[in-house]
Amino acid sequence: GFIKLYYILQKKLTAMRLLCVTLLCTLWAVTSYAAITSRVQTPRTARPREVSMDSLREENKELQGESRASRQRRSTPGNDSFSHTSALTGDNNPYALVHYSGAYSPLIFIVTQRRSNSLVVQSNIWRTTNLGQNYTNDTGKLPDDAIINDIHISLDKEKLILADQRNNRLYRTLDGGEHYLVTNVNFDPETLLFHPNITEVVLAYDSEHSDLYVSSNFGADWESLSTGVHEYVWDYLDKEATVYYETDEGNSTFLWKATIDATNRISNYKFESLGPIETNSLVLNNQFIFVEKQLNQSDTTGEGGLFVSYERGDFAEAMFPLKTQEQHYLIADASEQQALVAVYHYDNLTNLYTSDASGHSYSLSLQNLRGSDIDTWRTRSATVELVKIEGIRGTYIANRLDPVSSDPRYWPVFTQITYDKGGTWKFIQRPPYDSQGNPNDNCTISEDCNLNLRIDQPSRSGVYSNEHALGMIVAHGNSGKYLNSYWWGQYYSNVYLSRDAGMLLWNVAWNVFTQSDRVHLD
Fold it and tell me: Does the global pTM surpass 0.85?
């Protein structure tokens, strides 16, 4: 009786703690989300959050209601700065891009927009210098015909660029929005990508013409870097401004790199010996660069495959223990001096492989990894259900398929965890008590008594962790042999919390509807 009472008290305390943890999870979801896409690239600069004004108002009401119902506002006497409500007077635009300049900065920018058939037809820009206590309409600082499509954010909190695609203009501020410099460009400024370490250097990509441009003075002057470009990525480990990119030459695609100096002079180098590569296969991750060689489908032996450059050295073919004619590759992770690569072989067979230190030699880590269908692999939009637990070396959670029948569509899913970067995988033990505080008798690690977790697409719930909360995991799932949401079509699951990197997870909420990207606890 005492043990059961102790567990119930512990469960209540854990649930209260999760109220705070849950708020952090919504911020963690973007960066630590489970579904790993086929383009693991250099860390890109922050992006503004795009929302509808109606959804902002509803979310604010919802959060205020939850706050009143669950707790009193924590504030010191005379201090009512917990939150502010500011009206953007006279602005009826239904969409907004919101950018907060970050810690220790009082600057917040809001670009409101009205759209027609996905085109921005009217916009305003608002700015606060006191963390949202009040906003000023700064639209008058721009030309009368200005249309703001996007906010592009640099490393410097005082510097940002507003892109005007209709007029092919950039509005640059060097002083936190006090003044704007107007720069006309001869291309569509659809995409800007700042160098991750050098504030003044920025790339611009015109997708309609596949043209890549570069500026080394924060967008004041631009030079054409290349035409026919498909994929491009900054080398964030290089002290110089170096970019790798793919470009068309006839019917083939080749890999190039360019180094840009402070005067905007460009030095190009073509990886001639590498030969033609598959379009959009370039991935740069830490000390590794990955590309896929073109595969001649009429050649049963083929020369296609994954090629790797280690520490910016020569490219060499990656060697896998299994090889078939049709293979597709996804760089799942390349941290901790080792690469994890998912390979689609055939008939829904996706395996996970771990590399040696150079990324050239691979061994089988996990069979039947759950991933997306063959069409997504062919278009390089594939995902696999593998998540890295942030802050804990070598720790990953994966979902696997159990081939119990001849039709892969009906294969059930189960979850396993590794603490040695794929060397060994094991089941996750379910909590020692059920939702009523009763002991789970005879519950030990086995294939019929384990915990299975949801690892879904980026817009849905998954497994959350953060490097600043070591060992903390928040996840959705169920106990049993298989993951219910796939095997029986159920979309309700429990919420679990771990404080020891998945060694033990505790129930903190039951029968939660998990089709959204947030967890709601009453």
Answer: no
